[in-house]
Design brief:
Number of domains: 1
Strand order of the largest sheet: 3-2-1-4-5-7-6
Number of helices: 8
Shape: globular
Length: 211
């Protein structure tokens, strides 16, 4: 099956032919493992390039100089593994943290096939987050509400790491709720794959207020 969006996405992302071939390998792996592991919503496989690949690739444009990335709750490798594949030629390395061992098996095997510069950590976020102080970028997609994401990533966001968190139409409500517990410096970047979606870019975080 050829996704009609493939050519458009690849042209827009300006990746090399070798990187495009590695992204093709990723897509093939996703389709091969999906019936067994249920990695993504089955209906999205017909739009994998626009719904998943391009949705991940847009994060690279928001941090073009960053080299160290951390992806939480990596699941099917969206966005972390895709970012590693696409960013390998610019020296990016991504740590993928995932608590589900079966999903880690997919990530490990697909990273091997695509030669993606990643490290897969089969662990709970709260058990390993402190080890990533100093990471330039932390990201997570479809993992948890903003309040929980900020609680998990506070050790990083308080010390200079930038957070990139793709969110849907309820993003403002999530930020309003988060503001009752955190002082957050952020901006909202329109998603290029969904007119109702935004990417929350967090550049600073203060300790929870005690009101």
């Amino acid at each position: 099956m050829t996704d009609p969006d493939r050519a458009r996405v690849l042209a827009g992302s300006r990746v090399s032919r070798e990187t495009a071939e590695r992204l093709d390998l990723y897509v093939a792996q996703l389709r091969r493992w999906q019936p067994i592991k249920n990695l993504v919503g089955p209906a999205t496989l017909t739009e994998v390039w626009s719904r998943h690949i391009d949705d991940a690739l847009q994060l690279l444009d928001l941090a073009p100089e960053a080299r160290s990335w951390l992806d939480l709750g990596s699941g099917a490798g969206i966005p972390g593994l895709i970012l590693a594949i696409a960013g390998a030629e610019r020296g990016i390395r991504v740590d993928l943290v995932e608590s589900n061992a079966r999903k880690c098996a997919f990530l490990t095997e697909t990273a091997r096939l695509t030669e993606a510069p990643v490290r897969v950590r089969n662990a709970r976020i709260e058990a390993v987050i402190d080890a990533y102080v100093g990471t330039e970028i932390v990201c997570a997609r479809a993992l948890a509400p903003m309040t929980q994401l900020l609680a998990w990533t506070a050790p990083l966001l308080k010390t200079g790491t930038t957070g990139l968190f793709p969110k849907g139409r309820d993003v403002q409500a999530e930020l309003t709720q988060a503001a009752t517990q955190w002082t957050v410096v952020n901006d909202l970047v329109p998603s290029r794959t969904d007119s109702e979606a935004r990417i929350v870019r967090v550049t600073a975080l203060a300790a929870p207020s005690h009101r």
